[in-house]
Specification:
Helix content: 10-25%
Strand content: 35-45%
Structural class: alpha+beta
Number of domains: 2
Distance between the termini: 68 Å
Number of strands: 23
Length: about 450
């Protein structure tokens, strides 16, 4: 069966569901080809290819919504699935504020989100990438690879609705990941973790392997620091904890549930004047860039923080209509299995004027934090956990690797206490993020 048949089956089911009494209907079709190579305990343990596809229908009846999905593509099953979404809508809560599904709009151009070179990577090539990483790391016999992977994904999405929207898009992803530790006769270092991710086939497995190999070796000889308050420098991977508070706090679903720490704070200072952040849904090559969101609204650039002042929340159609607003293009869908929620796209942190080394040079005593493993509550910003890939900073220099060191505090306070931002961002899963320097953070080590 050709893919065109799937689309015609979906369109036919939508038309028949409208004739049965639906006021509106939307269909979200996605097809993904996944190729994954796993590394465990210094060995490639398997290579797995998986193809998935399915369609989800969201139907509106008297301003009430129903959702149903299927991964079976016989015409009668697709029709039954669409009909089921109508049946669910008939018994669901009605929302007087609902104004309707989106209508067609001009979509923004988004570049570098699909690379046929990724789409055409074979299983043998993926295994070779994993072998290159593994062999490069293992050039130093002290380094052990605990886990790692090469993940290739090729995705196609099609969004249709009864207001004449028909949008389709292809995207690709490649992710290389390694977690390692070092062992000598006298010492075992802590785990070090890093990754590279891109929409284009432009990442180097050797570069990643060398970087994490060096980081792993640097973790040998770790010591526990004294408990005290001090400055910290967050690696971009650790900065994600602060951004987790922000992305949760600006989510209009959480605002409307009154579970956000940013409720009612538009126009107020919630962070240091050094901190400016925007959500950029159409940045070229962004890992979360797309020409249309999960409902068909064009993404945009949304200023979130400007010099520490909260500027905006993120909305999909449902949450926007609840407040008499327009969607900001932040309808998020993990797959066809669920209706759209509210999310973020690519978070862009305004860059500072100093390198990481210059930020470190200005710290008399502090901690460099590569990752934080522990408990994090975005509802109130509370965070406590173990510092991973941490190093002592003394008199402007990184010195001793750390072990058994905890960090405790509140990311809402951390945002207000930012004293420096790096000028060199790293591409992370949530956007290009620079290192952040923060003062007055409680470190728990030896008594």
């Amino acid at each position: 069966m050709q893919e065109a048949d799937y689309v015609s089956y979906i369109e036919d089911a939508m038309k028949k569901t409208l004739r049965k009494g639906a006021n509106e209907i939307e269909a979200f079709y996605s097809k993904a080809n996944n190729l994954n190579v796993r590394i465990e305990k210094n060995e490639i343990i398997n290579e797995k290819q998986q193809k998935t596809h399915g369609v989800g229908f969201r139907t509106i009846k008297n301003r009430a919504m129903g959702y149903s999905y299927t991964n079976q593509f016989e015409s009668h099953i697709i029709l039954e699935t669409a009909s089921k979404s109508l049946d669910i809508a008939k018994i669901s809560q009605s929302y007087d504020f609902w104004e309707g599904l989106p209508t067609p709009k001009k979509l923004p151009p988004v570049k570098e989100i699909y690379d046929p070179k990724i789409s055409n990577i074979s299983a043998e090539e993926a295994v070779e990438l994993a072998l290159v990483m593994l062999n490069t790391v293992r050039e130093d016999k002290r380094v052990q690879v605990d886990t790692g992977s090469v993940h290739i994904m090729d995705v196609e999405t099609i969004l249709l609705n009864s207001n004449d929207i028909f949008y389709e898009e292809k995207s690709t992803y490649i992710v290389l990941l390694l977690m390692c530790f070092a062992r000598t006769d006298e010492d075992i270092g802590s785990f070090a973790f890093d990754y590279e991710a891109s929409r284009k086939y432009n990442i180097d497995p050797v570069e990643l392997a060398i970087r994490i190999k060096d980081l792993t070796i640097r973790g040998l000889g770790a010591k526990e620091p004294e408990s005290r308050e001090c400055e910290i420098l967050l690696d971009p991977n650790a900065t994600r904890e602060i951004l987790g508070t922000i992305s949760y706090g600006i989510n209009s679903e959480n605002i409307q549930k009154k579970s956000s720490p940013f409720e009612g704070k538009i126009g107020q200072k919630v962070a240091s004047e050094l901190l400016s952040i925007e959500d950029h849904g159409v940045i070229d090559g962004g890992l979360n860039s797309t020409s249309f969101d999960g409902e068909g609204t064009p993404p945009q650039r949304t200023k979130i923080l400007t010099k520490g002042e909260l500027k905006a929340y993120t909305y999909n159609c449902f949450t926007a209509f609840r407040e008499g607003k327009e969607s900001t293009g932040h309808a998020s869908r993990a797959s066809y299995l669920t209706p759209p929620r509210v999310g973020v796209t690519n978070l862009i942190v305004g860059l500072g004027s100093k390198t990481k080394e210059e930020l470190i040079d200005e710290i008399d005593y502090g901690i460099y934090i590569g990752r934080i493993s522990g408990n994090f509550r975005p509802q109130n910003g509370m965070i406590s956990g173990t510092i991973k890939q941490g190093f002592l900073i003394e008199h402007g220099e990184i010195t001793t690797p750390l072990i058994g060191t905890m960090v405790s505090g509140n990311t809402l306070d951390w945002m207000k206490n930012v004293t420096g931002i790096g000028k060199e961002p790293k591409k992370t899963f949530i956007g290009p993020i620079p290192p952040l320097r923060i003062e007055g953070v409680k470190i728990i080590g030896r008594k």
